[in-house]
């Protein structure tokens, strides 16, 4: 299986494919069609059996129930038991997909993610022309439920890893743990692992008609108490079998063979992957979970999403190391730009590619504009911050043409400009300009951001035109 999780681009599936089955809890027959999604669209379920075919985005904000599985609801539509297909999408590196479903619940299949993996691999995964943005954390993020004795933590890491530990105080199941060190191992190590249930829980679910689609082929039933012949006969009737037996030494209903000695712990890890995918952002962290369940997974996903939303701009902040030599020093900048004192507002360029430039402006009290702009409370004028961005953008634009000294850039439009923080003497402005689209006919569209430290102080969209200068060499 391709480890698309480490790819720099987003992925979808190559063509539509349909899978059919029954829902574990509803018992309803359902057809589910996986369809390619456009870049940046994420994972979406569409209830095609309901009026107007409402769409439910796979997002932790729309989780409404975690009692027996993970359930989403939005726009008047519900989709139950999404965790296994979500884990399969994570394991195959699929970022964007539309899932048309004609019933209220994702089919349970064999209780694992493997059938979905096989279907996705059968149709193939396609790379898209869009970058995949990973989010990392720089501090531990924790969750603890003292009532259920559940603990989860996300640790900073260079990739995505999961460690899961379970302890149900059961002599049959015992204490188990499972590890996933790389998503490349998901298919072989985690995807085949089936959901499990204790016999006492199964009896409650049956008596309350809560697992209408349950079968001993789509769940491991752990026998945690003596079972009479009458009970076995009743279970055989419920599951439409001639007979059902229990190997007391193994403690598994109907003597099915476990795919791994710690299959239950591995399935819990599978659920973690599926539920945390609802964060909505691909993450790099080491997740450690002790006694997890859907409720704790979802609450932890909410904390991760909240952290990312609060801090995601920080990952885009350029790193300024004053010890590193400049790519463009001041003499080189003067050879590229026509600006001179007092209007040259870029001291050096520290990064320059085909699509991005990063410059530095050291703000001092000796700037001539401070003599007339709030002299008793010096604040750098916002228009000059934008001018500094524009000069960096000029360097980016002129870097794309031969003989840049024969051309100038003139800015023709500024949109969406916002001034979020004041800039004072002593601040070091980090000026970042990024191309929004390829340069066509000399028109350059850029996104500009001014940082002081890790804070955004100014941002806006700037459009410039490259024009041959009047004193260009003939």
TrEMBL record:
Q: Which CDD domains match?
A: FabZ
Q: Per the record, what are the reactions this protein catalyses?
A: a (3R)-hydroxyacyl-[ACP] = a (2E)-enoyl-[ACP] + H2O; a UDP-3-O-[(3R)-3-hydroxyacyl]-N-acetyl-alpha-D-glucosamine + H2O = a UDP-3-O-[(3R)-3-hydroxyacyl]-alpha-D-glucosamine + acetate
Q: Which GO terms describe its cellular component?
A: cytoplasm; membrane
Q: Spell out the InterPro entries in the cross-references.
A: FabA_FabZ, FabZ, HotDog_dom_sf, Ribosomal_Su5_D2-typ_SF, UDP-acyl_GlcNac_deAcase, UDP-acyl_GlcNac_deAcase_C, UDP-acyl_N-AcGlcN_deAcase_N
> In the UniProt record, does the keyword Cytoplasm occur?
yes
Q: Which GO terms describe its biological process?
A: fatty acid biosynthetic process; lipid A biosynthetic process
Q: Give the EC number.
A: 4.2.1.59, 3.5.1.108
Pathway(s) where this gene product acts = Glycolipid biosynthesis; lipid IV(A) biosynthesis; lipid IV(A) from (3R)-3-hydroxytetradecanoyl-[acyl-carrier-protein] and UDP-N-acetyl-alpha-D-glucosamine: step 2/6
Extract one GO molecular function annotation from the record.
metal ion binding
Q: Does the keyword Cytoplasm apply?
A: yes
Which UniProt keywords are listed? Cytoplasm, Hydrolase, Lipid A biosynthesis, Lipid biosynthesis, Lipid metabolism, Lyase, Metal-binding, Zinc
Residues that coordinate or bind Zn(2+): 84, 267, 271
What residues sit in the active site?
A: 294, 373
Subcellular localization is given as:
Cytoplasm
Which cofactors does this protein require?
Zn(2+)
Extract the Pfam families matched here.
FabA, LpxC
- Family the entry assigns: Belongs to the LpxC family.
NCBIfam families listed in its UniProt record: fabZ (TIGR01750), lpxC (TIGR00325), PRK00006.1 (NF000582), PRK13188.1 (NF009667)
Protein purpose: Involved in unsaturated fatty acids biosynthesis. Catalyzes the dehydration of short chain beta-hydroxyacyl-ACPs and long chain saturated and unsaturated beta-hydroxyacyl-ACPs. Catalyzes the hydrolysis of UDP-3-O-myristoyl-N-acetylglucosamine to form UDP-3-O-myristoylglucosamine and acetate, the committed step in lipid A biosynthesis.
Q: Under which name does UniProt file this protein? A: Multifunctional fusion protein
Gene it is expressed from: fabZ
């Amino acid at each position: 299986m391709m480890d698309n999780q480490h790819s720099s681009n987003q992925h979808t599936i190559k063509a539509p494919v349909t899978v059919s089955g029954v829902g574990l809890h509803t018992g309803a027959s359902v057809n589910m069609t996986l369809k390619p999604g456009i870049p940046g669209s994420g994972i979406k379920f569409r209830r095609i059996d309901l009026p107007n075919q409402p769409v439910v985005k796979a997002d932790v904000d729309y989780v409404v129930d975690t009692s027996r599985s993970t359930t989403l609801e939005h726009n008047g539509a519900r989709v139950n038991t999404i965790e296994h297909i979500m884990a399969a999408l994570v394991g195959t590196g699929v970022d964007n997909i539309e899932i048309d479903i004609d019933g209220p619940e994702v089919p349970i299949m064999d209780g694992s993610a493997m059938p979905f993996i096989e279907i996705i691999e059968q149709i193939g995964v396609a790379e898209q022309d869009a970058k995949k943005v990973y989010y990392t954390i720089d501090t531990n993020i924790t969750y603890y439920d003292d009532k259920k004795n559940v603990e989860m933590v996300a640790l900073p890491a260079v990739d995505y890893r999961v460690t899961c530990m379970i302890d149900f105080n059961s002599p049959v199941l015992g204490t188990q743990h499972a590890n996933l060190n790389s998503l490349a191992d998901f298919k072989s190590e985690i995807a085949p692992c089936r959901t499990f249930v204790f016999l006492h829980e199964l009896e409650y679910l049956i008596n309350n008609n809560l697992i209408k689609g349950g079968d001993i082929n789509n769940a491991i039933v752990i026998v945690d108490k003596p079972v009479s012949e009458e009970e076995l006969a009743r279970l055989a009737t419920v599951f439409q079998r001639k007979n059902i037996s229990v190997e007391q030494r193994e403690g598994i209903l109907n003597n099915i063979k476990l795919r791994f000695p710690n299959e239950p712990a591995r399935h819990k890890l599978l659920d973690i992957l599926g539920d945390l995918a609802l964060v909505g952002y691909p993450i790099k962290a080491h997740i450690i979970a002790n006694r997890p369940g859907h409720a704790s997974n979802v609450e932890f996903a909410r904390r991760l999403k909240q952290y990312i939303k609060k801090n995601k701009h920080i990952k885009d902040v350029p790193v300024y190391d004053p010890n590193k030599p400049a790519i463009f020093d001041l003499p080189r900048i003067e050879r590229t730009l026509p600006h001179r004192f007092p209007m040259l507002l870029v001291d050096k360029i520290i990064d320059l590619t085909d699509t991005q430039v990063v410059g530095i402006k050291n703000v001092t009290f000796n700037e001539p504009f401070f003599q007339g702009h709030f002299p008793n409370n010096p604040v750098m004028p916002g228009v000059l911050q934008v001018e500094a961005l524009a000069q960096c953008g000029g360097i980016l634009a002129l870097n794309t043409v031969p003989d840049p000294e024969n051309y100038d850039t003139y800015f023709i439009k500024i949109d969406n400009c916002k001034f979020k923080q004041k800039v004072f003497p002593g601040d070091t402005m980090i000026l970042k300009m990024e191309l929004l689209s390829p340069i066509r006919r000399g028109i350059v569209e850029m996104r500009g951001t001014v940082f002081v430290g890790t804070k955004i102080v100014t941002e806006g969209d700037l459009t410039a035109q490259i024009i041959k200068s009047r004193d260009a060499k003939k």
